[in-house]
Amino acid sequence: MQFANPDSALLAAKQLYIFDMDGTIYLGDRVFPYAIRFIRHLRAAGKRVLFFTNNASHSPSFYLQKLGRLGFAPTPEEIMTSGDVTIEFLRRHRPGRRVYLVGTEDLVNSFRAAGIPLLGGEEPEADVVITSFDTSLTYRKLENACRLIRGGAEYLSTHPDLNCPTENGFIPDSGAIAAFVTASTGKTPVYFGKPYRETLDMICEATGVDRSGMCIFGDRLYTDIALGRRHGVTAVLVLSGETTPADVEAAAPADRPDFVFGSLDDVDRAIF
């Protein structure tokens, strides 16, 4: 596909640069050095940076340490996950509700730290069931989630990503786990994270930047790019992760990114 990008001056004029993580600035523990260089150039130019990942299997403190170790020098205010958005939704709209969470220990600890009442899963009923990207997933967890949802629990999911890119290929993500639960129960979850409005609302509130002053960089059409296209944020696709040029070609015009680059290396060169 031959994609003609608009004038890169449109990107250079933005105030806040939102970065997906997996597939955009690194793959697993393999950092993209050009991503570090690009972000360093942005900061030197007085721009603001936000790292937002749909991967809720780790806590913000984990990502703070990882990004620091990889060379991105983040601050705590520059990191946000789909787990944060889900927790904020529960605190504002489902206070005190009893939650059964299918997630990693990191995510469970984040929910507990926020005061969310968590169930063990063996209870006869729950108010809310939440599934996420769970690398400690067991059949018992899935069985409990499905039973509680059939019993009337509201079904939520932290994010819809089907696969998580790693240095060794793709592994099943939150959306794949939710697909199992949906196939068993017939219930589709309400999703959070990218591309949903709650995520953009939280970013606007946390940064004080209007959506017209933002741009988002990511490797997925249905999450990163969709967040921008649905909510008026300039969306920049990089082909260093999940999406291929053929995927862009096959997408409806309304779902295509505003810019397409091979990687953040190309973006850096275009702007600086």
Counting structural domains, the number is: 2
Mind telling me which CATH architecture of the largest domain this is? 3-Layer(aba) Sandwich
CATH class of the largest domain: Alpha Beta
Helix content: 25-40%
**Structural class by secondary-structure content:** alpha/beta
Strand content: 15-25%
Shape: globular
Oligomer: single chain
Strand neighbour order, sheet with most strands: 5-4-1-12-13-14
- State the total count of DSSP E strands: 14
N to C succession of SSEs: HEEEHEHEHEHEHEEEHEHEHEHEH
User: Which segments are poorly predicted (pLDDT under 50) over 5 or more consecutive residues?
Assistant: none
Give an overview in words.
The protein is an alpha/beta fold and about 270 residues long. It has 2 domains: about 120 residues, Rossmann fold; about 100 residues, HAD superfamily/HAD-like (Rossmann fold, 3-Layer(aba) Sandwich), CATH 3.40.50. It is built from 11 helices and 14 strands. It has a 6-stranded parallel sheet, sandwiched between helices. A 4-stranded parallel sheet has the order 6-7-8-11. The protein has a two-stranded antiparallel sheet with strand order 2-3. Helix 2 packs parallel to helix 11 and helix 6 crosses helix 7. The longest helix has 12 residues. It is globular, with a radius of gyration of 19 Å. The model has no long low-confidence stretch (mean pLDDT about 95).
